[in-house]
Amino acid sequence: MRVIETEIPAVKRVIPKRHGDERGWFSEVFRVDQLAEGGITSAFVQDNQSFSAPAGTLRGLHFQTPPAAQAKLVRVLAGAILDVAVDIRHGSPTFGRYVAVRLDAETGEQLFVPHGFAHGFCTLEPNTMVAYKVDAYYSPANDRSIAWNDPDIGIDWPVSEAEAILSGKDKTAPRLASLEKLF
Fold first, then answer.
1. Mean pLDDT, the chain, as a whole number?
2. 62 an active-site residue?
3. How many CB atoms are closer than 10 A to CB 6?
4. Which of 76, 101, 160, 183 could crosslink 89 through cysteines, CB 3.0-4.6 Å?
5. Which parts of the chain are coiled coil (predicted)?
């Protein structure tokens, strides 16, 4: 397993090694020791899974506020996504910037999204299943979001506003500029 920093070093790509033969392949997708060597020391407490039937389903940008802030380790079990992490740490030199990585079931690559980042993804294929570990339990009182299409962030999503399939919550999320200093 390799852990690689992205253009925002706190966000990391995790690339598990696959061992294959004529039957298929085997991979260790989660190893605390190897993640720690790469700087990921979160104690994950909950696994989440989402299924999106149509391509173009957009979920995000979501985060939880302290003391229930969540770090996430995201991977795709079926299909493919554009996975995005936005730095919402006020005072950070990368505040408002984002990392976008294609994750798919074929390669098994994962993305680590630390505390202080909003997270979202857009499905690139139909019938996409995403799994992610979090290091804090879901807390409705701490659940927040920011607009997926905020022009101040400028994410290059693979769908237009007219094509994006969104939840009601995601359609009305506030812009980053209105976010109080939480991180």
1. 97
2. yes
3. 16
4. 183
5. none
pLDDT at 27: 93
Angle at the Cα of 167 from the Cα atoms of 177 and 108, rounded to 5 degrees: 90
Distance of CA 91 to the CA centre of its chain: 22
Selecting among 19, 62, 90, 98, the annotated active-site residue is 62
Given the residues 119, 132, 137, 138, select the one marked as catalytic: 132
pTM: 0.95
Report how many domains make up the chain.
1
Q: What would the two tokens of residue 54 be?
A: 């149509």
**CATH code where residue 168 lies:** 2.60.120.10
Structural contact between residues 17 and 1, judged by C-beta atoms closer than 8 angstroms: yes
Confidence of residue 129 (pLDDT cuts 50, 70, 90): very high
Whether 183 maps to a domain, the answer reads: no
DSSP per residue, 146-161: --TT-TTT----SS-T
- Residues 132 and 159: their CA atoms lie apart, in Å, by 23
CA distance 168 to 166: 7
